[in-house]
Amino acid sequence: MTDKSMTIEVRLLKLEQLFNSFDPSPFLERDLDKEAEDYIIDWARELPVNKPIRILVHLPPDEVTKGIGVDVAIARYFDYRAAQGNSHLKELFRNGRWCLSIGIPVLLICLFASQMVHTGLGDGPLSSAIEENLIIVGWVANWKPIQTFLYDWWPLKRRRDLYRRLAKADCEIVS
Question: Out of 80, 117, 126, 175, which residue is the most buried by the measure of CB atoms under 10 Å away?
């Protein structure tokens, strides 16, 4: 039995509240309702990452029989969201590599040009100002790839990992 503190409880009057009413897909393929998804995700974020999650869906007694397969539907939905998250991460890293392939040559050109300015104009204040500005431009050209590879990917990875945990969650329907 999973620890009660790892349980996300969802109380519904009708099973349809769990799913997006505009999604024409068959029952097991439907998207979760946005509010239901947000509720589950918000609770799941609060839980320790090293513990399994349990989702307990409370329904009125006459609705419980309709809930057969809800566990599969929820798992499929969060598997799909995890796959989307993985795609977003891949796209972010692809963009980061593209930005890096531009930034590194720009930095090298700027460093080379700053040396040329120093040799061409000497040690005057104009020469120093141009040198410094070229170096700054070179480093600014690498701002985006540095930001991407150091910081931007963490939230996407956390969200993808959360979706993976939710896809593996034990789901139970109770009245």
Answer: 117
